[in-house]
Amino acid sequence: MKFLLLLLAIACVVSRLHASEDVKFYESFDEDFKGRWTVSGNSDYTGVWKHEKSEGHDDYGLLVSQKARKYAIVKELDEAVDLTEGTIVLQYEVRLQEGLECGGAYLKFLRPQDSGWTAKEFDNESPYTIMFGPDKCGATNKVHFILKHKNPKTGNYVEHHLQLPPSVPFDKLTHVYTAILKPDNELRILVDGEEKKKTNILSQDDFEPSIVPSKTIPDPDDVKPEDWDERAKIADPDATKPDDWDEDAPMEIDDEDAVKPEGWLDDEPAEIDDPEASKPEDWDDDEDGEWEAPKVDNPRCEEAPGCGEWKRGKKRNPNYHGKWYAPLIDNPNYKGIWKPREIDNPEYFELDKPNYEPIAAVGIEIWTMQDGILFDNILISTSEKVAESYRKYTWKPKFDAEKEKQKAEEAASSDDGLKGVQKIVFDNLYKVADLPFLAAHKSKLLDLIEKAEKQPNLTIGILVSIVVIILSVFFRLIFGGKKPIPKAKSETTKTDASETQEKQETTDVKDEHNGDADAAPRRRNTRRDD
Length: 530
Prior knowledge:
Elements: H1 2-18, E1 23-27, E2 38-39, E3 49-53, E4 60-64, E5 69-81, E6 88-96, E7 102-104, E8 107-110, E9 128-137, E10 140-150, E11 157-162, E12 174-181, E13 186-191, E14 194-200, E15 207-208, E16 216-218, E17 233-235, E18 252-254, E19 271-273, H2 285-288, E20 295-297, E21 314-316, E22 328-330, E23 342-344, E24 359-368, E25 373-381, H3 384-433, H4 442-454, H5 459-479, H6 497-514
Antiparallel strand pairs: 1-25, 2-5, 3-4, 4-25, 5-24, 6-12, 6-25, 7-9, 8-9, 8-24, 9-10, 10-11, 11-15, 12-13, 13-14, 16-23, 17-22, 18-21, 19-20
Helix pairs in contact: 1-3, 3-4, 4-5
């Protein structure tokens, strides 16, 4: 009941926001897009759009339903949005339910149709003002912001790409992307409400190419003079090779000081035929060739310093210099790296504010290898607060629910993985307990292993105890245990039956703790054995 009331409250808030004058366009996809959005009739775009719920939610969106397809769909605005007056906020949600290995999930905010396009033929050539959103493939991983701006001098439209844009979140959750254009030319890019990029739209450094071109450009007709020398250093023409410089001298020579070790067996080969090998009975010399016994190490060489022909070792040749080159000196004719002269840029113009074209439609024109891309809550607003409210009431609840579900699934997956590791550990411990040299302690080991398996909170301590027992027995086998302590003879002999019984009980107790002559003495119990 509380959840329903929450949904009603959110719906009420959103409906009020939608009715605000600050909202120029809003698409929630609560209703089917058919009849309201236009799917491109261009034959290149074969991808099928669907009106589907976001996975795990009752919230609908616009779904990319097929892999490896081109998609194009457009929604014409009732009234074009002017970007030259006041603040403009572009915002939308997208969820990559199957991830995004290669493809786009961006929006295009299109110019009016008098610029030469129709909704039914919407494609990648349809003129847009701004392209904004995720794009990922290979080395490309960015949240695009591309402004298509008209040069007032030439009349040409040029794409200006934001440099060093934010990267695309790698998970499968719903994310909200926001671009804020301010009247003072400030541009801010938010991902999930967090600022990721801030710049001036007219910045010379943050857009490629910059919106305002440089005042000068290299003269395309300028040519480097033939006598222009770009070499900073040259070989010294007056240098000569020293008389004692031998270019043919080897890098290494025989070590004349080396002496053959005493006992070296010159006439013995390092390997000999295996004396125990014999030709197989089914060996056919005609088909298999002449049989040769396999080689084995020469046993006579094992005690000698070496076998076979002895050769001197090598040492560095003190007379080695390598190829001679004349030393480098400063080039007296060096003029630097040649560059064409600068001339006035015929396309240069001055600008106080960008000449934004109005937005008349919102389109999605993408190519993607993944399906499951879900678009939702597309907003064009003149208020940052309104956009923030949409994030709070339409995006945040979904994101939080998805995040909690993701954490639960990761925890479950981690538990399953840990259980699998624990099973392998305990299976091997049971096998170790069956080893013959642990036979005397098998019962105790099995008890400890079962206790560790049933009581996870004690597992580490018990495993340490098991390891201590195994190592103790192992080292006892290698180095030997303590010699049994001989029993002291009684100074007096008791003849009474009760005294004899008392002595026997005392001896049994001692045997239990100290062992007898036929058994290895037991270790004193420690806390790690408990």
